[in-house]
Amino acid sequence: MDAPRIDRERLLQWPFEDVYQHYTAKDAMLYALSLGLGADPVDRDELRFVYEKDLRVLPTFPVVLCHPGPWNADPATGIVRNRVLHGEQGVILHQPLPPEARLRGRTRIVDVIDKGEGRGALVYTERQIFDADTGAPVVTLSATSFCRANGGFGGPSGPVRQPHSIPERPADHEIDWPTLPQTALWYRLNADFNPLHVDPDVAAKAGFERPILHGLCTFGIAAAAALKALREDPARVEALDVRFSAPLFPGETISVEVWRDGDVVSFRAWVRSRAVKVLDNGRIRLRRS
Ligand SMILES: CCCCCCC[C@@H](O)CC(=O)SCCNC(=O)CCNC(=O)[C@H](O)C(C)(C)COP(=O)(O)OP(=O)(O)OC[C@H]1O[C@@H](n2cnc3c(N)ncnc32)[C@H](O)[C@@H]1OP(=O)(O)O
Question: Ligand 1 — pocket residues by CB below 6 A?
Fold first, then answer.
């Protein structure tokens, strides 16, 4: 049997259905808890994200909303799903998220790039999320799937996204954020059910000694840590971007380096015990205060 192969034109017209979701305060609190917020019971700043009184919603929360499901598991995509890793993620918040809302999400594939045989393919997706009642834009999510087994399908080699450059000076802050051995088991309850993060057999087929953490969980942690280090109001966040540079395992401690230059925050994250950079090119754009 021939190896699966991406048909770029078919992917660019992949027929996603709109996804409607009514989220409540409980969903927003579960998301924050699954990242590890609330570990210190007297930390009032963190409590705001896990307690319904004056609840605030983390700016990375929309990444778990209006998820279109495991579309890349369909053999018709030609994608070798168990070799896909999350490469990059962007979030644009058109308005701060309330503790409860009815939303409609529309996903589409915006480009498919061929990095070459043995190097992989990039599938760029976009999810626009609207207020289900008024139609007003709420969030735009952009994601890069790094399809490690799909290079050489004959597509264009660009354009590729240019990641944000981290300042060359030493970080202004560094903050350690422990994860739990069961962090991925909690995180998946935000409706992110990829078995790569829970099933040792699936992880082994993907080339890992054990299940790895969701990239989006690392993203949420790193962004929350950066805002905490700066004591910055999450409601000021207008946009975020990151690139995932190496997998990390649940239970490892994430060390987040943070820089601030006016309304732009840069960040990246390490697992110091293995001297591995797990997240790079992080940028948070803040609304002018
Ligand atoms: C909507 C959702 C979509 C997501 C679906 C996935 C569902 C999730 O549940 C799955 C996950 O969460 S997986 C966990 C999170 N992700 C990871 O752990 C990936 C970590 N990164 C890696 O392993 C490597 O960087 C790796 C493998 C990505 C690249 O490593 P290498 O092949 O060694 O690449 P390298 O030699 O460093 O660079 C080659 C070219 O690729 C570009 N590049 C590198 N990292 C990239 C990345 N993360 N995203 C996009 N492009 C990337 C480099 O710039 C380089 O480009 P060029 O050839 O043009 O110079």
Answer: 84-88, 115, 122, 125, 143-146, 148, 160, 194, 196, 212, 214-215, 243-247
- Shortest-distance Cα residue to atom 29 of ligand 1: 245
Cis, bond preceding 163 (omega within 30 deg of 0)? no
Domain-located, residue 2: no
Distance of CA 23 from the midpoint of ligand 1 (Å): 30
Residues classed as catalytic: 192, 197
CB-count burial class (<10 Å; 0-12, 13-18, 19+) for 219: buried
CA distance 83 to 72: 11
Tens of pLDDT along the chain (289 residues)? 567 899 999 999 999 999 999 999 999 999 999 999 999 888 999 999 999 999 999 999 999 999 999 999 999 999 999 999 999 999 999 999 999 999 999 999 999 999 999 999 999 999 999 999 999 999 999 999 999 999 999 999 999 999 999 999 999 999 999 999 999 999 999 988 999 999 999 999 999 999 999 999 999 999 999 999 999 999 999 999 999 999 999 999 999 999 999 999 999 999 999 999 999 999 999 998 7
Q: Name the β-bridge partners of 259.
A: 266
Predicted model pTM = 0.97
Per the structure, the complete domain to which residue 78 belongs is given by: 8-286
CATH number at residue 32: 3.10.129.10
Q: Which atom of ligand 1 is nearest to the CA of 84?
A: 6
Tell which atom from ligand 1 comes closest to the C-alpha of 72. 5
